[in-house]
Amino acid sequence: MSKIAEQMGADFVLSLGDNFYFRGVDSVDSPRFKDTFEYVYTAKSLRIPWYVLAGNHDHAGNVKAQIDYTQKSDRWKFPSYYYELNFRIPNTGKTLTIIMLDTIMLCGNSDDFLDEKPRGPLHAVDANRQLAWLQERLARSKADFLLVAGHYPVWSVSEHGPTECLLQRLHPLLLKYKATAYLCGHDHNLQYIEESGIGYVVSGAGNFLDPDIRHWNHNPKGSVKFFTGQASTLGGFVHAEVTKNKMVLTFLQAKGTSLYRTVLSQREFN
Is this entry keyworded NADP (predicted)? Predict the structure, then answer.
């Protein structure tokens, strides 16, 4: 990651949940912040903001502790359960908005080991409040590039498959408000799925790797453009670059080998 950040450039990192296996952290003083974050990503090229959201394993612990750690770290940025980021693309006049969601608050938690689907939100009021906030932000957005990020996938070919709750609650909003892409983790592989002009990026290969494709046919026909989950590759990640009129996504192996590249256009308002 540090090599790619240096070579291809990186202004920030998005961390899409399950930040601390297996049961999150219990307090803001947990040694995990140092042992599995600060002392791991030490390269100069990674001393940049890390924007964080929560996954199901984080919700097994104390998510508020992860939010509070923002005050203790120079680069850990987790201001709230869900929040919006806005950037100007240098020398272009173009803008990028990223909406960071808590999909566990929206859909409920799930036990990976029992292969559960999300059980439905623990607090319906909180779920509906987040959804109303999201709709308002999407409706207002005039950004040239609009990304939405959460832990659970909308579409996925792998073990967890498409998340029914997100297909019902989030998918119609992505379509209606012309999102550029939806970014997620949860399934332990790299996937790129394109449907109705929106890119769906699954980047969950930072720890475990899973070659499972049991839900391939539960995704729209012809939508799956790329998949890798071979354990021999030691995982991988995705680099995104936004330029004047396009966004380039590069799917990379842990050692920096490029596996797949795709381009998404800026939003058009008609």
Answer: no
Averaged pLDDT score across all residues of the chain: 94
Residue with tokens 């989030």: 170
The pLDDT value given to residue 123: 80
3-state helix/strand/coil string of 71-105: HCCCCEECCCCCEEEEEEECCCCEEEEEEECCHHH
**Beta-ladder partners of 247:** 242, 264
- For the chain, give the percent of residues with pLDDT over 70: 98
Per-domain residue ranges for the chain?
A: 2-265
| CA nearest to 130, candidates 153, 150, 156, 109 | 150
Residues near 112 by beta carbon (within 8 Å), at least 6 away in sequence: 56, 57
CA–CA dist 39, 34 (Å, integer): 6
Per the CB < 8 A criterion, the answer to whether 187 and 156 are in contact is: yes
Residue 115: pLDDT band (50, 70, 90) is low
The 8-class DSSP code of residue 235 comes to -
Which of the listed CATH numbers 3.60.21.10, 2.40.70.10, 3.20.20.70, 3.40.50.920 matches domain 2-265? 3.60.21.10
Structure pTM? 0.95
Q: What is the pLDDT of residues 201-245, one digit of tens each?
A: 999 888 888 999 999 999 999 999 999 998 777 899 999 999 999
For the record, the structure tokens of 55 come out as: 């996954």
The reported pLDDT for the residue numbered 111 is: 66
Residue 95: other Cβ atoms inside 10 A: 17
Please say if the pLDDT value at position 270 is more than 90. no
Structure tokens at 18: 């399950």
Residues facing residue 237 across a β-bridge: 252
